[in-house]
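Task: sequence design from structure.
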C-alpha cells in the first residue's frame, strides 16, 4: 500500500535542526519534535502521526494561528463597515427630523437655538 505522507515524515525526521535555541536552551518546538519522533518510531504506518506532525508544523510556521487572526480581522472590518452604514442612516434620519415641519411648529426644539 502506498502512503504519500511517508516521504514527508521521513524528510521531516532527517531535516530537524539541532534542537537548541538561540540562547542555548531548547528550541520552542523541540517538545513537539520529540513527540513526532516518538510517534514515528512507534507507529505501524506514518499516517498515524498526522496529528503530531500538524502540531510540530504549526509550532514552526504558525499557519493556523495566522489564518485565525486573518478571519478575526476580516470579521472586525466587516462589523465596523456595518456600524458605519448604520451611523450614516441615523445621520440621514436625524437630519430629516431636523428639517421637518414638526421642528418649525416648536414641538421639538433645536439645541442650537
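Answer:
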Amino acid at each position: 500500500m502506498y502512503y504519500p505522507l511517508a516521504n514527508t515524515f521521513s524528510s521531516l525526521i532527517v531535516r530537524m535542526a539541532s534542537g537548541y535555541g538561540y540562547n542555548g536552551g531548547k528550541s520552542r518546538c523541540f517538545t513537539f519534535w520529540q513527540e513526532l519522533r516518538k510517534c514515528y518510531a512507534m507507529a505501524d504506518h506514518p499516517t498515524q502521526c498526522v496529528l503530531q506532525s500538524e502540531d510540530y508544523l504549526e509550532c514552526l510556521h504558525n499557519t493556523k494561528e495566522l489564518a485565525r487572526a486573518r478571519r478575526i480581522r476580516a470579521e472586525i472590518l466587516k462589523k465596523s463597515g456595518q456600524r458605519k452604514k448604520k451611523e450614516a442612516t441615523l445621520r440621514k434620519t436625524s437630519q430629516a427630523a431636523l428639517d421637518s415641519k414638526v421642528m418649525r411648529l416648536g414641538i421639538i426644539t433645536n439645541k442650537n437655538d
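The radius of gyration is 30 Å.
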